[in-house]
Amino acid sequence: MNFKKEKNKEKIEEKKMESEETVNDEKLEEDKIGVHEKIDLEDKLKSTEQELEGYKDRLLRKAAEFENYKRRVENDQFNLLRYAAESLIIKLLPVIDDFERSLIHIKDAKDVDSIKDGIKLVYDKLMKMLEDQGVKSIDAVGKPFDVHYHEAIMQRKADNVEPHTVIEEFERGYLYKDRVIRHSKVAVSEDNHEEISDSSEQTDKEKLNNNESEAE
Q1: Neighbour count for residue 128 (Cβ, 10 Å)
Q2: CA distance 97 to 153
Q3: Rounded CA gap, 42 and 83, in Å?
Q4: Where do the structural domains in the chain lie, given as residue ranges?
Q5: Superfamily per CATH, domain 136-216
Q6: Per-residue pLDDT for 188 more than 90?
Q7: What is the DSSP letter of 145?
Q8: pLDDT tens across 132-181, in order?
């Protein structure tokens, strides 16, 4: 009887040990899985951090490139404004050379007509150069007064001229392409309507006086 009890006890102990071993094995397996998952997470985290560093590095490089590009554009714009008149000045230099040569020849020149011709040639050359750049003079004399192109300095009577007509130009005006860069300073004919009315009234009075004299 005691022998059977001992046997049963041993079997129970064996089952208990087997159960504990099974639990330990399962726990060990879970620990292994947990370790692997942890390693995977750490690897992914490290990879993500490296990728993030790569993005940050590229972003910093792009920001630096943009700043350099911005400085170049600002510098180009500054130089463009600073030297905007350079091409025009280069074209003016030959005209200045012609004036200087004319001034040298004037000292010894005895023929006034040749001096006039020389100055006229220089003037024509200058005007041609300005015309090539889009500059042209405004026609004024004989034209109806136009506030967009003319600036009236004075008004005066003029025979056989329509009222508000430009009759004299004191300073020539100029257009640059389609923009007025200087208005023509001009004299404009007066409106002689009042003068005509006064003359008509005077004539009527004279006729009336003549009729009264004849009646007497």
Answers
A1: 11
A2: 36
A3: 61
A4: 84-133, 136-216
A5: Head domain of nucleotide exchange factor GrpE (2.30.22.10)
A6: yes
A7: P
A8: 888 999 999 999 999 999 999 999 998 888 999 999 999 999 999 889 99
